[in-house]
Write a structure and sequence with these properties.
With 162 residues, the chain is of the alpha/beta class. It has a single domain (4-161), classed as Aconitase, domain 4 (Alpha-Beta Barrel), CATH 3.20.19. Helices cover 30% and strands 19% of the residues. It contains 7 helices and 7 strands; from the N terminus they run βαααβαβαββββαα. The protein has a 7-stranded mixed beta sheet. Helix 4 packs across helix 5 (91-100). 35% of the residues are buried.
C-alpha cells in the first residue's frame, strides 16, 4: 500500500500555474520524456535535469491554477516527482493529479530546498528529516490510497473489473 513517500524537497512560491508547470508550447511533445524535460522551465530552465525520482515539490497557495490541462500533473509525475505538497491547490489540478496517481497533500509547511521529508499519507504526518519538525495533515482515506497505489483512477477502475 502506498502510504509513505520520502524524498528531497524543491520549494516553489504561490500561484504556480499550469503554464509554468508545463508551458503550452510543449503540449504536442511526441514522448512523455520530452514533455517531462520541460517541467517548471519558466521558473528554472534546468529544473527537469536536477530532479531525481522520488523528489517532492512543496509550494505555497493555489498550486496548479490556470488551465485544466492534464499534462501538468502527468509531466511532473513522469519527471520523477513523487508528491506535491502545497498550502492549497486549484481544484482541477488536484483532481487531475489524483486521477493519474500523483499524491497531492494540502499542508502549510516551513521547509527549505534540499530538505528530506517523509510523508505518511495514511496517518497524516509529514516529517522534515532535516530539522525533525512534524506537520499534521489530513490523512488520506483508504479508497484514495488505493487509487494512488493502483497508479490512478483508470488503473484502479480496471483492477476492480478483473
Amino acid at each position: 500500500m502506498m502510504d509513505r513517500i520520502e524524498g528531497k524537497v524543491w520549494t516553489f512560491p504561490d500561484s504556480i500555474d499550469t503554464d509554468v508547470i508545463i508551458p503550452g508550447r510543449y503540449l504536442r511533445a511526441q514522448t512523455m520524456d520530452e514533455l517531462a524535460a520541460h517541467v517548471m522551465e519558466p521558473i528554472d530552465p534546468s529544473f527537469a535535469g536536477k530532479i531525481k525520482h522520488g523528489d517532492i515539490i512543496v509550494a505555497g497557495w493555489n498550486f496548479g491554477c490556470g488551465s485544466s490541462r492534464e499534462q501538468a500533473p502527468v509531466a511532473l509525475k513522469h519527471a520523477g516527482i513523487a508528491a506535491v505538497v502545497a498550502k492549497s491547490f486549484a481544484r482541477i489540478f488536484y483532481r487531475n493529479a489524483i486521477n493519474i496517481g500523483l499524491p497531492v497533500i494540502v499542508a502549510d509547511m516551513d521547509v527549505s530546498n534540499g530538505d528530506e521529508i517523509c510523508i505518511d499519507l495514511e496517518n497524516g504526518n509529514i516529517t522534515d528529516k532535516s530539522t525533525g519538525k512534524t506537520f499534521k495533515v489530513q490523512p488520506f482515506k483508504k479508497f484514495m490510497l488505493e487509487i494512488l497505489e493502483d497508479g490512478g483512477l483508470t488503473h484502479h477502475y480496471l483492477k476492480k473489473q478483473e
